[in-house]
Design a protein that fits this description.
By secondary structure, the protein is mostly helical. It has helices at 3-31, 56-82, 87-112, 125-137. It has one domain (3-142). Helix 2 runs antiparallel to helix 3. The radius of gyration is 19 Å and the shape is elongated. The termini are far apart. 15% of the residues are buried.
Length: 143
C-alpha cells in the first residue's frame, strides 16, 4: 500500500463514519419521541406566525443529504487512490459523484428554501396529519 492509499483510506473512513453518525442523528430526530429528538418541530400552531420558516426543512431534508454526501465522498476518497493507475476511470468516478451530489443538493435546497410547510411525504407519520391541517389554513402565497 502506498501512502496515497493509506491517506485515502483514513480520510474515507473518517468521512464515512461522520456521515453514518449524522445519519443516525437524523433517524433519531425523525423517529424519537423525546423533546430532545424533536428539536426541529415548529412549536407555534401555524408557521405563518413566524417571520421565517422553522428548522423542519434543514432537519428533514438537508441534514440527511449532508449525511449521504459525506458517505459518498468517503467512498470516493477510498476508491480514488485504489483506481488511480486508471486515471480516466478515477476522473469519471469523481465527476459522476460531484454531479450527482450537486444535483441532489440543488433539489433538496429548492424543496426547502423559504417553504412554510414542506411536501407532506417528507414529514414523519406522527406529524403528517398536523401539517396537512395547517397547510389548508395557510394563504396561497405562503404554502
Amino acid at each position: 500500500m502506498t501512502s496515497d492509499m493509506i491517506i485515502g483510506l483514513v480520510v474515507g473512513a473518517g468521512l464515512i463514519l461522520a456521515g453514518a453518525l449524522l445519519g443516525v442523528l437524523c433517524m433519531w430526530s425523525r423517529g424519537g419521541g423525546s423533546a430532545a429528538a424533536r428539536w426541529w418541530v415548529a412549536k407555534a400552531p401555524l408557521p405563518q406566525q413566524h417571520t421565517r420558516p422553522s428548522l423542519e426543512g434543514p432537519a428533514l431534508v438537508l441534514l440527511p443529504v449532508l449525511a449521504e454526501t459525506l458517505v459518498v465522498l468517503g467512498g470516493a476518497s477510498v476508491l480514488g487512490p485504489v483506481l488511480a493507475p486508471v486515471s480516466g476511470l478515477t476522473l469519471v468516478l469523481v465527476l459522476v459523484v460531484v454531479i450527482f451530489q450537486l444535483a441532489l443538493y440543488v433539489t433538496a435546497h429548492s424543496m426547502t428554501w423559504q417553504r412554510w410547510i414542506l411536501p407532506l411525504w417528507v414529514y414523519p407519520s406522527w406529524l403528517r396529519e398536523t401539517r396537512r391541517h395547517e397547510k389548508t389554513q395557510l394563504p396561497d402565497g405562503r404554502r
